[in-house]
Design a protein that fits this description.
The protein is 36% helix and 27% strand. The protein is α/β, with parallel strands linked by helices. The protein has a 6-stranded parallel beta sheet, with no helix packed on it. Strand 3, helix 3 and strand 4 form a beta-alpha-beta unit. Helix 1 runs parallel beside helix 2, helix 2 packs parallel to helix 3 and helix 3 runs parallel beside helix 4. The protein is globular, with a radius of gyration of 17 Å.
Length: 154
C-alpha cells in the first residue's frame, strides 16, 4: 500500500511514474497541500479509486483545482474512511460526500471559513442541522471548526 501524505504538490511527471509502475500496489491515502495539475491527479485517482481510504487537502485557499478534486472524490470515491479538509461556506458537496461514504467513513475533520456572513447563529445551525442528517451512526471522530471572519469598521 502507498500513502501520499501532505505533498506540497504532485507534478505530472511524478504522477506518470506512479501510474506506470508495473508491480501491483494500492494507493490508500492521498493528502495534498496544493494542486498544480488536476488532470494528472485525476488520472492517478482513476487508477486507484477502488483503494483510496484516506483523503484530505490543505485549506489555505479553496481554489478551482481543489473544487474539481473534491467533486471528483465525491462522485467516484466510495470507500473513504478518513476525511480531513476545509470547505467554503457555499459548498454543499460536503454533505453529499459524507452520504456517499456513509458505510465506510469513521473520521471527519471539517474546517469551514465563513467570510462576511451576518447571521452567524443561523448559518452555524444550518451547518449542524445538515451534518446531523448525513453523519453515519458508526462515526468515531468528528472535528468541526466554524470560523467566522467579519469586517472591522473603524
Amino acid at each position: 500500500s502507498i500513502h501520499i501524505l501532505y505533498c506540497d504538490s504532485l507534478n505530472s511527471d511524478f504522477v506518470q511514474q506512479i501510474i506506470k509502475v508495473n508491480k501491483p500496489f494500492k494507493l490508500r491515502s492521498l493528502f495534498v497541500n496544493e494542486i498544480l495539475h488536476f488532470e494528472s491527479l485525476q488520472l492517478l485517482l482513476q487508477k486507484f479509486i477502488d483503494y483510496l481510504e484516506n483523503f484530505g487537502f490543505e485549506y489555505d485557499e479553496y481554489d478551482e483545482p481543489k473544487r474539481q478534486l473534491f467533486k471528483f472524490i465525491t462522485k467516484y470515491c466510495k470507500k473513504i474512511r478518513y476525511f480531513d479538509s476545509g470547505i467554503p461556506d457555499d459548498d454543499n458537496n460536503i454533505y453529499l460526500f459524507i452520504e456517499n461514504n456513509q458505510h465506510n467513513i469513521n473520521y471527519i475533520t471539517i474546517e469551514v471559513d465563513i467570510d462576511n456572513y451576518t447571521n452567524y447563529k443561523e448559518l452555524s445551525s444550518t451547518v449542524l442541522q445538515n451534518l446531523g442528517q448525513v453523519l453515519p451512526i458508526k462515526l468515531e471522530y468528528l472535528c468541526l471548526s466554524l470560523s467566522f471572519k467579519t469586517k472591522i469598521i473603524n
